[in-house]
Amino acid sequence: MRVQVAIIGGGPAGLLLGHLLSQASVDNIVLEQRSREYVLGRIRAGVLEQGTVDLLTSAGLARRLHKQGLVHGGVELCFDGSRHRIDLHGLTGKNVTVYGQTEVTHDLMDARDALGASIVYEAANVSVHGFDGASPRVRYEKNGQTHEVECDFIAGCDGYHGVSRASVPEASLRTYERVYPFGWLGLMADVPPVSHELIYSNHERGFALCSMRSPTRSRYYVQCSLSDKVENWSDERFWDELRRRLDTRAAETMITGPSIEKSIAPLRSFVAEPMRFGRLFLAGDAAHIVPPTGAKGLNLAVSDVRLLSRALIEYFKEGSAVGIDTYSERCLRHVWKAVRFSWWMTSLLHKFPDTGEFGQKVQHAELEYLVGSVAASTSLAENYVGLPS
Ligand code: RFL
Ligand code: PHB
């Protein structure tokens, strides 16, 4: 088999890239190691920047998003027992939209089916070859048979644990990493959200976040230790802990119910440079990870794909290599700003085991400055709604 672009990974980055390329008649295949049901079963991001919504809209992928997505013009910061609203829209003229990554993925899968473009689920032992030369190839196994795909370019959209970045010779890659000494325990429940906007809470017991998926489905998180196990957290223990980390009004009005999902995610910042090696490109979590505090991971994957799709279309339709030659540098400039913001939000809101009372006092002073200064609130707001890429 031969295609112009072989895409590894059928998460949001791979599916969106495939869609944008197919729309421009650049033929491609998506190879995904898991089943469709498994990919749709993962609960992850919830907040889309306006730029992400705009791209999905212009690609014809946002019919359901515009019906079901919740447009938010602000977020709340909770500390010292009170909540303070950051007026995202008033400060930047932009909103964010709460619409689950699961739904984005669902819409992308439906769109790919509608275009009749190929996607191979449960592709085992995917391997990439020859990307440092003129004729790259991708091999995979399906139902016990080995297949080979010849292509012009390989797009590594296979997440942090994928095979693409791991196949690049170590000497060609520079990585930067910070692992945080805690995780997030997330719970999903079919109960109305405690507030109509998100609440990010700094509390001496640890960080908490109140988010949602719809007017009847809530997504909540509490900071937990890295050694914690989901089995140690009954629903009751989770709700009690969450209430303790919020203001009295939220704690008293919160509606609780049985969880439909609970999981622990570690927090990490990671960047691999560059994002291109010959005819292999990395996009999304394959190239960079941010802690979820700034709600940037999925949005960064989308902004990489915006640049990569344009670069590849330019190459195939106009014969210009400018886009592919500048892809890595342009992405990384934007990526590092999101890495900085996500690190800063994480540092501001979590309880760190080693910074002691001094660290807490500094956090507190920063939070007060933030809610009391238009300049500081605007800085948070413009990063949260998304910097231009
Ligand atoms: P994904 O989603 O990991 O998809 C990669 C796909 O590649 C497949 N794969 C392979 N396929 C073939 N061969 C191999 N060898 C393969 N190895 C892997 C995988 O099965 C998978 O299907 O990466 P992608 O597409 O780059 O998308 C990135 C986003 O998923 C991620 O950045 C966000 O979920 C991060 N994130 C958030 N981002 C936001 O923008 N806003 C948020 O509010 C937000 N909240 C979150 C988050 C991530 C979280 N967790 C669980 C880490 C909240 C949480 C708790
Ligand atoms: C979510 O709804 O899952 C969510 C929202 C905001 C974040 C992280 C996760 O910063």
UniProtKB/TrEMBL annotation:
InterPro entries named among the record's database cross-references: FAD-bd, FAD/NAD-bd_sf, HB_mOase, RIFMO-like
The keyword Flavoprotein appears for this protein: yes
Residue intervals of the FAD-binding domain: 2-342
Keyword Phosphoprotein annotated: no
Top-level class of the enzyme under EC nomenclature: oxidoreductase
Entry EC number(s): 1.14.13.2
Pfam families noted in UniProt: FAD_binding_3
Gene Ontology biological-process annotations: benzoate catabolic process
A Gene Ontology molecular function term of the record: FAD binding
Keywords: FAD, Flavoprotein, Monooxygenase, Oxidoreductase
Protein's recorded name: 4-hydroxybenzoate 3-monooxygenase
Organism: Stigmatella aurantiaca (strain DW4/3-1)
